[in-house]
Specification:
Structural class: alpha+beta
CATH topology: SH3 type barrels
Mean pLDDT: 83
Low-confidence stretches: 1-10
Distance between the termini: 70 Å
Order of helices and strands: HHHHHEEEEE
Helix content: 25-40%
Radius of gyration: 21 Å
Shape: elongated
CATH architecture: Roll
Amino acid sequence: MDLIIRCRFVENPPSPYDPFLMKSFQDLVQSRRQWIDENLTPWCKVASRKDLLLAEHEWQDLAGRPAPEMTLWKWAWERFPVLSQEGFHGIDETNPVVVTCQDGRIGQGYPDAGRSEGGLLFLIGEAGEVVGPFAIDEISTIESAK
């Protein structure tokens, strides 16, 4: 029976994360980086707010030491490109935006990265008033107001 199991193992190609393929620490690091790039980051860009909040509580187990606001929520908000900027680890506050929600609500103002957390986006309107919150799941589009 032991021989049959070994033959079955040989018949099936090893998965990309097969621990037997990781011969060095560098292989392990590369495998984790690949998983983050190919699985975790894309998932954050499409996951529901409910799932993102659940992931935030387990973030150290999933992603290691990085703070959720610097990774999980950054990646989640990247589904709206106007809110992200290359090399910046948070919501881009520099340009005014127009937020359109699925229920028809519209908000306009500058994104408030300090106030926006847990999948809720807040804006600062022209008169300095707080606009929002807008839950990430409720938002249809975010476009530049310029």
